[in-house]
């Protein structure tokens, strides 16, 4: 492994700025203590020369007990009495977690490349976020939560403009805020249905018919129209009833839940390494596009929109080329239906661009882009005013998002910009991919179909003993997750650096040798 | 009006405890200033002798300009460029809002009996909530948001037990947490469908068939079963695709959105005053129950559950008697389907009991009770372990609720208990209802079908010029909302006291005389 690391140690652009501990009086005492202890831990010399983004981070994982250890076992048993713990992976002590490291209750501290299912962007107990979280405006947002559609707070335009909208995808300049990925997608679907029916009706000024009004209340057409959203095999868009109808990841996500009879198109099943199978993969993508177009033309409930993830994440980290997505954009334009890009997992920097669809170089932007997870808030971006329903109270709910989380996302954006974290992720991702490439050559039975080259740290591979690898990773100090049936997926935070990549590669090497 | 108020001034149990300003160092400076200014405002003598729960509150509304005033108009115009403002009621300055009073940008301060669509429980800038919101554990919950199903925090059992679960409805002892009312209902529906199919399959140990696994991915039966949720005409259960399929409040909530072909039963259309129409109303409720039972037996997609609100809120504040709900419980038991009570708007004290269904004296508890709004978090309570799906990852999503909001609900619960606010609401509600009763006799054309007697402050009436009344209310210093086609609905906070009721009655008197 030592030689592997040495050969990997090429020169990289240095990331000069670093996270500075807050000195404000408002820092809670518990956190001040934590900083002090983290500083003591970091007295150990860093294991390489890259300037640290989180200087006070532990220098590596700390394993004190089996995982779960005795304290964790007791706590899980207690929690099990009031909360379903069958999907529990690890009980965490977030007071002791810092930067890329997650702590448990037994003193174990793991390098976290799963990051709360890809949803922690800039490190546990990030000091900049801590300042935002303890600000008077955050306190007010928490205790005076408004019904935003009716009684927005005086600075809501500011919060949107300096936060969520400041990172709007190219070509889009408006947002409808939501609470999580599932409802963000469903709100986008609703916007698509209202847009479609408005077109069919003859425009925004045409009133609803009596038949529409009446039938809407009994869930019948024309008021509740026979329209659909087209999604892709193995896609994941959430687990509420509308979003779940577009989710096709695994039976366990869908069994026993009624679903809309909506169309599902094949998603490209690419062969790796890509350069060896260029012709086959191109043919596969053409086949999927043709089948998508056929379904759009022939499905009994016409699609109002196509929804797609830039990388199918829960479904197994399935990639497609920019040409495929350009093709989807062309087909949706041709058939006058909307193109929704679900960036809930791919968005906010993880692929080495702020939005993963920035990799596609589309001629015209998606009609809507949905987001959540690392944004810590949610919603859909759009640009066309016609996507606003023709009357108020059509796209509406009590809270319509959450200023507290919008304020937090603004702080996250500022941190990403201050530390140039999208660039860091592109650079670290390339370094990590190279290391994994070498590991896959050394252990071809362990790392198969390595994918995510040029996609930041959004990297995955197939493993014939995936669940065993995930479990053994804890023993070598790494918290890592899976996706699909046999993929190991890496979802580190945006503060993941070369030294962390080295630790990950070392840990994998240990597992593969075991 | 003066005589009206005097005759209303009966002796009431005094609420002795009051909200004490926090003295902690962690109180933000902005808030300290606010307390100082609020204290100055309260130098004006209180307008009656009831001990004040919020001593520093303004002594009454302050109207400085037309509403919206010039500053609000400018701000709304600016917000309109990035956010849909067509449903905007009033832009608020929450820094200047306190207790029962909401402030705008022009120095106007209104008595708020709408409270963010019934979702603010214990007053704007409540000092106790302020302490919770500025605590280190809140900061950690905000910046280290866990994926609760996988990586719960070490104190999650504590937070549940001392918070959400400490107010679990009688007979229920478990909770699945969510983010808002819509998804709380949808998660309850999912639990109902999984429970039903598990029964049909022969129990928790029977594996899914290959046909179920395969068909689930194409949204076809048997994997995606032809089952339904039965709801009621004018019911409102949310606006996502599954919840919207059970919502039947108004066409504007449903138009153009595809919906499941699920059954809808009539909800009692009671005549007022109730004591004059006892026989007719009883017959009406029996008719609705019979029709519900017929639909359960005959609907093409069998219902897995019946969902009902204790008071249909968005649909126009429609009440039914405890006997009706007891009848629903009996019918669901008889047909072995689940009974879900949607307490999103009625829960957390507003009806003078913590849960509105406490008024019904059921023999057996509901199978699930959903909640949100005043709880500031959301979820469904249940008691039967069989309502947990047989395998992990079936009822699951990334965040599965939010510890930050669960911590806030715990503080809300503590505040409700400390100040005996459910009792306060029962007492104030009775006082207010009596006052409205007298007003309705004085202005029979203005207050029709007054309802909510014995239901705390959860009071409404029909108004032939409803929208005009709501608008004029702002001019007399009152922020009040409507529901359904012509109801004025009162949704004050739990800190609403006799003096506030007097101000409300005075204001209504002014409007009716105008």
TrEMBL record, chains A, B:
The record's SUPFAM superfamilies line, in alphabetical order, gives: PLP-dependent transferases
EC code(s) of this entry? 2.6.1.19
UniProt cross-references to InterPro entries, sorted A to Z: 4NH2But_aminotransferase_euk, Aminotrans_3, PyrdxlP-dep_Trfase, PyrdxlP-dep_Trfase_major, PyrdxlP-dep_Trfase_small
As its record notes, the protein acts as a catalyst of:
4-aminobutanoate + 2-oxoglutarate = succinate semialdehyde + L-glutamate
Highest taxon above the source species: Eukaryota
State whether keyword Ion transport applies.
Answer: no
Query: Which protein is depicted?
Result: 4-aminobutyrate aminotransferase
